[in-house]
Amino acid sequence: MAAYGNGLALAVPFEFFRDQIARTKMHRITFEVPEHLVAAFSETAKDFFEKARSGATNAQRAAEIRASDRDAGLDSLAYLLRVAEGPSDDAGVIARFLVGLYNGYDFPFALTTLRQLDDELFEHCLAVLRLDNSASAEVHDYFPNGAVRWQTMIKNWNLAEKPAQESLPPEGHVHHCSYENLTDAPGYRDATLFFKVAEEGEAPQSFGLALSAEDSKKIARDLVGLHRRAWQRGKPVDVAASESRPDWL
């Protein structure tokens, strides 16, 4: 029975409380309800207890979603740590992402860097961001010797030796790099081109160049012109044995 003012009471199925008492701390709550609203209040309370018993209240669903997000975030965090500590080509990006969550002031991480990742890794990163936004623990505290593992990542990727704001390379310096991909927005001509650079004795590093619409037009014109001129003279000097003139020329 749930008691109300003026001696009115609401009969609540005992089995609800019987099922809950063994595992849940109970509280007695008393409301004073105007007599003409008792029937409506009783109906509302009955509906609440029926939904609560089946886990269908809005608050319960919200709590379940939060718990599900937390579980997904923990799974994603464990997966990303394995990637960062492994031989994957994406290990460097993931390591910098995790270290940025560990200490974003000393190791800032640009979220646009996540565009370099495939869809699966990108979604894992988003799950970890949601976890970190609402969690009561630091990312490294979820793992035994977590602080040691994060410090190892910092050391392995030389992150501690880099200033928070890296300076540009010397003017005129040429990097030998490989093109990875680009990101753009539908209908726009500006784009960000991503490249991977491997200097001698250093781990490969990815970087992006954000181009305006005007600059992307110039680059497209220059590169298409370069290829067209090379094929106009016959076959390019560096043509592969199985390569033929591309259709886009």
Can you characterise this structure?
The chain has 249 residues and is mainly α. The protein folds into four domains: 2-56, no CATH class; 67-156, no CATH class; 173-211, no CATH class; 216-249, no CATH class. It is 45% helix and 10% strand. It contains seven helices and five strands. It has helices at residues 14-21, 38-54, 58-84, 91-102, 119-134, 146-156, 213-232, and strands at residues 2-3, 9-10, 177-184, 191-197, 205-211. A three-stranded antiparallel sheet has the order 3-4-5. The chain has a two-stranded antiparallel sheet with strand order 1-2. Strand 1 and strand 2 form a beta hairpin. Helix 3 (58-84) crosses helix 5 (119-134). The longest helix has 27 residues, at 58-84. The N and C termini lie far apart (83 Å). Mean pLDDT is 81; it is low at 1-9 and 16-23.
Describe the structure using short key phrases:
mainly alpha, two-stranded antiparallel sheet, 7 helices, disordered N terminus
